[in-house]
Specification:
- The protein is built from twelve helices and 15 strands.
- With 322 residues, it is α/β, with parallel strands linked by helices.
- Strands 3, 4, 5, 6, 7, 14 and 15 form a seven-stranded mixed beta sheet that branches.
- α2 crosses α12 and α7 runs parallel beside α8.
- The protein is globular, with a radius of gyration of 19 Å.
């Protein structure tokens, strides 16, 4: 079968190589899956660079979420077991962690439903307790993680302010349903949020960026607001001033979705059932900006790493026997 492999750490476009390899063999409690679609995530770039919290042995295949097919023809959503990631024609995954792919979504959309939307749902609902009528501020609103949060916020009845970089991403954010769009390249984020909220600020901030985005968030979060930290796509990890959180009476909370897989897997399943229902009602639908063939995967991972894509970029392998 074909699989992209990384033999040394570095930039994805430089270190990913498309190779012919043997199919991975399932271990105890695992199952082999045909990859129907593999969604590219920012962690795939971090894996290539050797900067992710998990460092699989070299060589490895990136790709942390897929829509796959079981031997009996069921469509499922899975997190492949590294080092055999999803940018491949076949993967192995834990059998008890497979989730049914919603019928309302095609393969590419189903592949993109898992990590980004689970992170958004847990961040907004379980951690921040977002309420209808509140204002949600989403950084990188046109990206894969941010677009999921925008849709989930709208589905929850919130007013959503999206922060983006550039006019094309602003257009995408409006199409996603953002009530207010702020272009960080030309607008003052803090002033724009305060203007949009009558001076109150954002009740919930969803931040997958870190760096300057977090700094701005702390300046425009509302009384009793909640800042949810879900990542550091900017590469800069902020150091929150706790005295500022004290005097303004807001909360800073982290969200590492992967921990729920080990500490509360039942909650992951309940979340998937909720997401499936939202997808069936048309309340959420992953934004797939590109569907690329297997040969284009390395370039696609690099573009996601560089922050020049919108929504999700999904690889569609030409699976054997399909």
């Amino acid at each position: 079968m074909q699989a992209w492999r990384v033999h040394r750490n570095g930039e994805p476009s430089e270190v990913m190589r498309l190779e012919e390899v043997e199919r991975p063999v399932p271990g105890d409690g695992q199952i082999q899956l045909l990859v129907r679609a593999a969604n590219i995530n920012f962690p795939d770039a971090l894996l290539c660079r050797g900067h992710y919290q998990v460092r699989p042995p070299l060589p490895f295949t990136p790709g942390v979420e897929i829509c796959g097919e079981t031997e009996d023809g069921r469509r499922v959503i899975a997190t492949p077991a590294l080092p055999h990631g999803g940018l491949s024609q076949y993967v192995v995954a834990d059998a008890d962690a497979l989730l049914p792919a919603p019928e309302a979504l095609d393969d590419a959309e189903a592949a993109a439903l898992h990590i980004g939307y689970q992170t958004g749902w847990f961040g907004l609902h379980r951690r921040a307790r977002l309420q209808a009528g509140e204002t949600l501020l989403v950084h990188a609103a046109a990206g894969g993680v941010g677009s999921a949060a925008v849709q989930l916020g709208k589905a929850a009845g919130a007013t959503v302010i999206g922060v983006v970089g550039g006019p094309e991403k602003a257009r995408v954010a409006r199409e996603l349903g953002c009530d207010v769009v702020i272009d960080r390249r030309t607008d003052d984020i803090v002033a724009a949020v305060k203007e949009a909220t009558g001076g109150r600020g954002a009740d919930v901030v969803y931040d997958p960026v870190g760096g300057d985005a977090y700094t701005a968030s702390a300046k425009c979060v509302a009384f009793e607001g909640r800042i949810v930290v879900v990542g550091f796509a900017s590469g800069a990890i902020p150091s929150p001033a706790l005295n500022h959180a004290l005097v303004k009476n807001y909360s800073v909370m982290g969200l590492h979705w992967g921990l729920y897989n080990t500490k509360d897997p039942a909650a992951v399943l309940r979340c998937h059932e909720e997401l499936t229902g939202l997808a069936e009602r048309g309340a959420i639908k992953p934004l797939i900006s590109e569907r690329v063939p297997m040969k284009g995967a390395a370039d696609a991972v690099q573009r996601v790493a560089d922050g020049v894509t919108t929504g999700r970029v999904v690889v569609l392998p030409e699976g054997e026997g399909r």
